[in-house]
Amino acid sequence: MAAQRRTVTVITILFGVLLGCLGRSDDDPRLIDLTWTLKIGIPVHPIYPNYTFTIINRGVTGALGVYLESNEIYMSEHTGTHIDAPAHFAQGAWRLDQIPFGHLTGPGVMIDVRDKIGDNPDYPVTPQDLQDWEREYGRIPDGAILMLRTGWGEQFWEEGPAAYLGTDHTRNASLLHSPGLHPAAAQWIVDNRDVKAVGFDTISADPGDSTTYETHLILLPNNVLILENVAHLDEMPPTGSTVYAMPIKIGDGSGAPSRVFAIVDDRTSAGVTTTPNLIFIVTSVIMIILQAL
Amino acid sequence: MAAQRRTVTVITILFGVLLGCLGRSDDDPRLIDLTWTLKIGIPVHPIYPNYTFTIINRGVTGALGVYLESNEIYMSEHTGTHIDAPAHFAQGAWRLDQIPFGHLTGPGVMIDVRDKIGDNPDYPVTPQDLQDWEREYGRIPDGAILMLRTGWGEQFWEEGPAAYLGTDHTRNASLLHSPGLHPAAAQWIVDNRDVKAVGFDTISADPGDSTTYETHLILLPNNVLILENVAHLDEMPPTGSTVYAMPIKIGDGSGAPSRVFAIVDDRTSAGVTTTPNLIFIVTSVIMIILQAL
To answer: What's this model's pTM, rounded to 2 decimal places?
Structure first.
């Protein structure tokens, strides 16, 4: 019996060491780019100018004698996939370059509200919608970056401003149509959860038919950043990712075009990361019982 | 003796489980922002226009009836902390939006060459300098993003174009002075190592007195990206970080302003991450010996 126990012990330990080593590898997290490409003609909110891209060099230059490409860009800070800094709507609040760096990254939460929208192009996401998500996936983690997937980006971004903004009159903000966050849901987030940013696959955090920008006016003064025109939310899992919303660092900016991306730990999101430890603990317990017999 | 062995076994297993749990926590990586703030008057390479920032709204707007800030920017793609896409100097090579996303992140390597520069403001970093670093810290890992710390950024960026560019004639590229990478070192990297990008705390990858842009012409056609005007390299460790060089996604761009940052795993960089596993293995071995006695 002593030899048998010893064998069990040795096997368990070797198994534990093996699993410990397996569990430690942090290779190959999956990267998801949540950013649209900036190009002439992309949708912009009616109060901002169109994005401009000017080719300066594209060929062999006389000055350098070598092939050279270079271009210049003109745009509002609120162009393409971008971040709204609190100062956008709140006097004295953080401007873009004052946002603490750690506020630009957090656990990713993707809330799919496509089924709720029905035929209301100005659907306002409600506190109930957020609570429904929590019932399925658990409480929104502290420091989270929330992404609301309305399906707008997937359906309409590539079709251009009229489709995406919901109006042919792309210079009249009062005619916009797209889903957004109901002010009551913004207030619920501010009052009940610790959220760093809320992202949208639409042109605005406020529903298209809002004329008061109430959701902006609730989130931003509370240092909840807003991300607009977020891309590819169909690739983002509901939980198990870390979002990085990385704006260019515009001094005194009210916002900035950003590279927004998520790192998905496939082992974490699939619940695999903790498995080796669990197996090890269970095996250890079995071994302790065997030894005690 | 049986009871004693059993006690040793139980303690070892509990110890192992505890260390396993400790070793698994992935909390609080340290974030280092390697990006300069974009503001009027920042240094730009003489062939590009000055950065422009125009305040459009800063106060209560008549249209919305609420406080609003918004601004517009004009710049070359090669402004501030930015990335050069291969197409910048190589016809048919990746433009900015064609760079595979995974090519924008990799193990961070910080090579401090400040002591080599002496009084040569156009010091070209040599293959020997890179090999000296490897002798101290080990082989440059595959997929690395190399950062060359010349000290130029720390000393001169905030002082403005004349100090940083090494000339009062900030519109004449032939008068530039700053250290860079010797073409032979660029060729050594391309031939001998698997590097995704090389970053500089200067205005250019080429030394200031270069008129042929040879280092650009070696790195870019080989899909080795270039990062220029990288900030705060004094905060980056030689090894143990992951760099993210995140450009805004300019369609057909030859480059783009970027948010460049490093995530330092303090446990990894201090060699602590693997310690729990090591302790567990050593303890297990001791236990096996004790059992076998």
So the answer is: 0.86
